[in-house]
UniProtKB/TrEMBL annotation:
Keywords: Methyltransferase, Transferase. The keyword Transferase applies. It comes from Streptomyces fumanus. Residues 58-130 form the Methyltransferase type domain. Pfam families: Methyltransf_11. Gene3D superfamilies: Vaccinia Virus protein VP39 (3.40.50.150). GO terms for biological process: methylation. This is Methyltransferase type 11. One of its GO terms (molecular function) is S-adenosylmethionine-dependent methyltransferase activity. PANTHER family: METHYLTRANSFERASE, METHYLTRANSFERASE TYPE 11 DOMAIN-CONTAINING PROTEIN. It comes from the Bacteria.
Length: 242
């Protein structure tokens, strides 16, 4: 089972996650239609950008994507090249290799760590950052099943109020910020294993061998209760550069 990219279709019938009410991919398509030069940061396998370009009423003249993980970059290149979108390999902690004010729209779905100063730098005055972020304590029911109770600092990481303050400190004006908590269900232990292999930061160093006892206990719980319930957290950022 491949773990690169952000295609979660393998989980159909085995796990489910409610989606945020704002429908980010289609909302992104609406923003693309009115943009001139677009950068997607951390595109993953390019799936969201590919979808948004496919349904957008108008294609922007310039679209570029970045990705830091080589398997994802290769997958995104294969997917986005037919749309004329170059994928630039950029490490998560490296400066964006673009000139100041190069883009009027920067988008991102689930960036690992938003680099606000770089986002603000590559946006032109009046440009927009439109993104969906992972929120605080996301899927912590599953994390804590394997790792035990986590410190409050870990739970508070990615809090939208903190991210708002960081965005404003970088010179962005937050126009809209919405947050939702969404139900997830895992219906078999195979779905849990595949999820933890795909989203590797949830349980760092996860292997079946290392967590065999916890996996067995979780399997028995799913068999008894029908599913394991967790909750993801998401927030929508709409910010502008003054």
């Amino acid at each position: 089972m491949p773990t690169d990219g952000w295609d979660f279709s393998w989980f159909e019938g085995r796990a489910s996650e409610a989606r945020p009410s704002w429908g980010y991919a289609r909302a992104m398509a609406g923003r693309l239609a009115g943009a001139g030069a677009v950068l997607e940061v951390e595109t993953g396998g390019g799936e969201v950008l590919d979808f948004a370009l496919g349904v957008a009423r108008r294609r922007p003249p310039l679209v570029v994507a970045t990705e830091g993980w080589a398997p994802n970059a290769a997958k995104a290149t294969a997917l986005l090249r037919p749309r004329g979108v170059p994928v630039v390999t950029v490490a998560e902690d490296a400066p964006l290799p673009f000139a100041d004010g190069a883009f009027d729209l920067v988008v991102s779905r689930h960036p690992v760590r938003p680099r606000w100063a770089e986002i603000a730098r590559v946006l032109e005055p009046g440009g927009t950052y439109f993104a969906q972020h992972v929120g605080p304590g996301s899927v912590f029911e599953l994390v804590e099943f394997f790792l035990g109770p986590q410190p409050q600092a870990s739970r508070d990481a990615r809090h939208p109020d903190r991210e708002r303050a960081a965005a404003e400190a970088a010179g962005l004006q937050v126009v809209d910020l919405r947050a939702e908590r969404l139900r997830m269900e895992f219906h078999d232990i195979g779905a849990v294993v595949h999820f933890l292999r795909k989203v590797v930061w949830m349980v760092p160093g996860f292997t079946v061998e290392a967590y065999r006892d916890r996996l067995r206990a979780l399997h028995q719980r799913i068999e008894a209760e029908g599913c394991f319930v967790a909750h993801s957290t998401r927030h929508l950022f709409d910010a502008r550069k003054a």
